[in-house]
Design a protein that fits this description.
Layout: H1 4-18, H2 24-39, H3 42-58, H4 62-76, H5 83-100, H6 103-120, H7 124-140, H8 144-162, H9 177-187, H10 190-206, H11 210-215, H12 217-226, H13 231-251, H14 254-272, H15 279-292, H16 296-313, H17 316-332, H18 336-346
Helix pairs in contact: 1-2, 2-3, 2-4, 3-4, 4-5, 4-6, 5-6, 6-7, 6-8, 7-8, 8-10, 9-10, 10-12, 10-13, 13-14, 13-15, 14-15, 15-16, 16-17, 17-18
Length: 347
């Protein structure tokens, strides 16, 4: 809404001037969202999110708890807190919402919990089982929009497990990409539309369809503008940057090298502002820069540093990705021993 920011600022102002109530929790977490979007001050925005949680507990506002925790996890806290901690918090918000009757935010929190589980590297078969049971719950409760938010994640997960004939398209046993996009176009649901596009781009990346990902960069920019401040923004930067590095190497392209460095600079700013979930992404990018510069020794060292970081954070899929990029680089350099060592660990 056009006056959203003004209303939130007034709510925060009145809370400070006249005293807080349980409704201040919504005002403060929303103010945190504004700070993420406009000021890019991640630590300060997270402080407002934490204050919102404190107000919930002070006023025993269980009826608002699921809603506020969802906003905190999906739009604020992931910019400064480790994602695996927020996964558990999101699942707690789901359980709270189901107990208190806040079904919509309970199910949105469940979807967030699954999304975070996938991002931190939970085994794909376990994700598959979780999504299947969750969608049954959502359908029983007739929350089709939340189902539509979850379907692209499910089909993406299945594409990684089953490798369909065209893995860069989210069409398979649980959804048809064209049908869901048609439905979102008819309803004007841009958020679901761009969730589909995001996961299509991610699937294309994982199956090495870098030219296809490159062609979709414009849609990625549009998606990021709609899904701003969500985890997909910084997560997509990983795939966008690595695609640009891959195309720069493959085509000896100054255009893609410039694009890669632009994405790296953006991630570096996020890390400096306190985004712990981007530390390993920046390390992988630094290794890729050494590859472009032809500095084999530095590239090896930086890949090892990136791999160590992913292991330390428990990011299974990203550790495999870093091993794969290191292995492919060393294979290009004729270092077959270390190439096969990394490629074996990648799989």
């Amino acid at each position: 809404p056009a006056h959203f920011v003004l209303v939130i600022l007034k709510m925060v102002q009145y809370s400070v001037k006249y005293g807080v109530s349980k409704y201040s929790s919504h005002a403060f977490v929303s103010y945190g969202m504004i700070m993420v979007n406009m000021v890019k001050d991640f630590h300060e925005s997270d402080k407002f999110g934490q204050l919102a949680i404190i107000f919930l507990k002070r006023f025993q506002a269980s009826d608002m708890e699921s809603h506020v925790i969802f906003l905190c996890c999906q739009f604020v806290s992931h910019w400064s807190e480790p994602l695996h901690l927020l996964q558990k918090r999101s699942f707690d918000a789901y359980e709270i919402g189901m107990r208190t009757g806040d079904i919509n935010y309970a199910l949105l929190s469940l979807r967030t919990s699954i999304q975070f589980s996938q991002l931190v590297g939970k085994p794909l078969p376990l994700i598959d089982a979780e999504i299947k049971s969750s969608i049954e719950i959502m359908k029983d409760l007739k929350h089709e929009r939340v189902v539509n938010f979850l379907l692209p994640i499910w089909q993406f997960n299945l594409n990684l497990m089953e490798k369909p004939p065209d893995p860069k398209v989210l069409t398979g046993s649980v959804m048809k990409q064209d049908d869901l996009l048609k439905s979102t176009a008819e309803s004007g649901d841009h958020a679901v539309k761009y969730v589909v596009k995001i996961y299509q781009i991610w699937a294309s990346f994982y199956f090495g369809e870098f030219e296809h990902v490159g062609a979709l960069m414009g849609e990625l920019t549009q998606a990021n503008s709609i899904l701003r401040s969500t985890p997909t923004l910084w997560r997509s930067a990983l795939y966008e940057g690595l695609t640009a590095f891959a195309l720069a190497r493959k085509n000896n392209s100054s255009k893609w090298k410039k694009h890669a460095l632009m994405v790296k600079s953006k991630v570096q700013k996020w890390v400096k502002k306190g985004n712990v979930n981007c530390n390993h992404i920046l390390l992988i990018f630094e290794a890729e820069i050494s590859v472009l510069e032809g500095n084999t020794g530095a590239a090896k060292q930086k890949y090892e540093t990136a791999i160590s970081a992913t292991a330390r954070y428990g990011l299974t899929h990203d550790r495999a990705l870093a091993h794969e990029r290191a292995g492919e680089f060393m294979l290009e350099k004729g270092d077959r021993y270390f190439a096969f060592h990394h490629l074996k660990l990648a799989h």
